[in-house]
Amino acid sequence: MDSPRELHIYYRDGHSRLEVIDSNKRTVLYVVHRASSKPHLTIFRAPTPSSGGFIIGQVSFHHFSSAIELDVPQAPLSMQKTSKMSSNYEIHGKDLSWRWERDRALTSNIRLVDNLGGGVLARFENASFSVKKQGTLTLLRTPTWEMLDAIIITGLAKIEYQRRSNSSRSGAVNASNLAVMNQ
């Protein structure tokens, strides 16, 4: 049985960039550039001494929609909500069928379930009280690089979608509270 591997996700440069760092907390595996316009996330595999970094995927979100658009040149993936009332997302690609879902009720933690083989592939635990750390992604199986790329792309897409939804929801609540106070 594989032993779990923790990857740590940290904000950098005033939240305009993320780094996915290996369990040793020193080795940068992925660098993510965040933007307010499309593509909202551009994900790079970090450079190593033997090879340069390269884009593994881009993520775009749509206003007034739960659609998440993935651009993954190496292995095309699709990601869509399971239903209007659900927060779960199905991911389909060549030889894979996954689902990102809430880990438990009343938390923002999520897990990745393998629809074909069964079982949980990964878990993301939000670092709620940290300014610099977004959270920890625990891999429960040892993936290939291509599979790890897919986990990172879809996981970061789901996490960023949740963050944006929560921000717009709290913005709407603040605006309505301000309107009530000004009456």
UniProtKB/TrEMBL annotation:
Taxonomy, superkingdom: Eukaryota
Annotated DUF6593 domain residues: 22-164
Entry-linked InterPro entries: DUF6593 (IPR046528)
Protein name (database record): DUF6593 domain-containing protein
Species of origin: Penicillium cataractarum
